[in-house]
Amino acid sequence: MLRTFKYLKPYIIPILFIFIFVGTRAFLDLQLPRIMGEVFDEAVSGKESSIIKSEIIKLGIQMLGITLLSIVVTIVSGFLESRVSAKYAKKLRDEVYTKIQSFSLDELDELTVSSLITRTTNDIQQVQQTVNMLLRMVVLMPFIATGAIIMALTKEPTLSIILVVSVSTLLILIAFVFIVTMPKFGIIQKLVDKLNLVTRENLKGLKVVRAYDMESYQEEKTNKVADDNRKLNIFVNRIFTLMWPGASLIMGLTSVGLAYFAIKFGFIETSSKFTPGDLSALIQYSNRTIMSFMMLTMILIAIPRASISAKRIMQVLDKPLVIYDKKDALVIEDVKGQVEFKNVSFKYPSAEENILTNINFVAQPNKVTAFIGSTGSGKSTLINLIPRLYDTTEGSVLIDGINVKDIKLSSLYEKIGYVPQQGILFKGTIESNIGFSSQSTDESIIKSAHIAQAKDFIENTQDGYQTEIAQGGKNVSGGQRQRLSIARALAKNAKIMIFDDSFSALDYKTDQNLRKALKENLNVTTLIVAQRINTIKDADQIIVLDKGQIVGIGKHDDLLKNCPIYLEIAQSQLSSEELAYAK
């Protein structure tokens, strides 16, 4: 957890003020038992009632002044504590989010999305709460405990032995709680990850779950994880509940013990210095000492729990990036858009066999290059190498003859428009979604909507381009969502356009019109992954993949004659008349 404290450096001055205010509060708090003891002594002093009343009023005014000052100091320090801890958490969350944004798909797969969500929310909140507690208690409680012990010893050292016994008993109770509960915190955080994973999976696959009538199974699966989490939390909380009753019992026995031994052994009668007021003050100082140890214990319990969260946060921040900018990375300006694969092979870090093997081809500017093959042939993986969502294991991917690994990532992203298999929309308006890129303009938004065949349905909505889009685009159809995703990529005005099976959610007519509009309006390098022959048959170059290897390159007619796998795909999709016409 100490490593996360470096994010507190910008707030050193406010933290110093917090410590000053907290120290002042502790000093003021230690004055109250002494004054209360004096009030007690005045009440039993036997003086004239008018004198007693006058003295008690003076002491009462002192107590009121100290209390009011303590309230002011507490409010100011509380405000600073909350402000510092909130800014610290925001800085930490920003760092984690920025790092996650830099991850390749490999790192995202390794850490899992559900775990990253937990680390960004629950774990950072846990650390924030502990830092807030530390700022408040790390000076206050030791100061009060030390001051109370010293004040107790000055009142009567012999009776203070009872306080030593009480604190020792409390420490034994604390040690027991620590030993039993500390190993459980790491398990709880992992269960939270698992619960997030199962819940996210269930909600995302709700349609499939219902279609297969598996609600009961999924509910049982979720309940098991939730039940494990519940049992562990109940166990830990039950152990913790022993502490406060235990501390209260020790505190009560200490007060009774001090009063009993003070009377039994005649401390009040035999010592003119030890008065009933001193006994009252001694009992209050003893109680403050025990409470201080209890609060310190809560800090010591919170620290290991927060340390586990901090460790999980630092795992993200310390994760070495697989894909990053070289020191001398190039910024490319005038891009023609030629994409070349040279002897490219790729395998996932945890895999033993290549997904892609010895891939070689050139996609020319202002031409359409299409990829087709059976499921699992490596089509999507191949095009994900161009924007460096993954990096090649062997060989190189070149843009205008420059290795993409030598290009600054931000510069590379600027030159590529990318449409994933599933249309992804963000909460906002249609306009904000299409104009998502900083390179988009009002003109390009309207033009791209027209090319993507989205213009008509946009204008038919009540608010047009200002129509609200729900989170994930849940208030539009799959085809509309896909067309808006395509429009967003087109509005970017990139020189290289990648469509990863992006036309699958479109009907045949829309697909045909969209491809026609693309050809007429775009002078870019276009790469299309598709499952349907009709989507790519007019491409300038079709690349056929099978088991991660290229088994055919050419135009539609040529591949029907020369590539058995392409012919097999065509026969499964095209009518005999279409095949005969092609031949």
Automatic annotation (TrEMBL):
Q: Does the keyword Endoplasmic reticulum apply?
A: no
A single Gene Ontology CC term: plasma membrane
Keywords (alphabetical) are: ATP-binding, Cell membrane, Membrane, Nucleotide-binding, Transmembrane, Transmembrane helix, Transport
Keyword Membrane present in the record's keywords: the answer is: yes
Q: Which residues form the ABC transporter domain?
A: 339-572
Report TM segments.
Answer: 12-28, 59-80, 134-153, 159-180, 239-263, 283-303
Q: Where is the signal peptide?
A: none
Main location (coarse class): membrane
Instruction: Check the record and name the Gene3D superfamilies matching this protein.
Output: ABC transporter type 1, transmembrane domain, P-loop containing nucleotide triphosphate hydrolases
Domain called ABC transmembrane type-1: residue spans: 16-305
Q: Which Pfam family, any one, appears in the UniProt record?
A: ABC_membrane
Which terms does the record give in the GO molecular function aspect? ABC-type oligopeptide transporter activity; ATP binding; ATP hydrolysis activity
Lipid bilayer topology: Multi-pass membrane protein
| Location in the cell | Cell membrane
Q: Which SMART domains match?
A: AAA (SM00382)
**Can you tell me which family this protein belongs to?**
Belongs to the ABC transporter superfamily.
This protein is called: ABC transporter, ATP-binding protein
The source organism is Alteracholeplasma palmae (strain ATCC 49389 / J233) (Acholeplasma palmae)
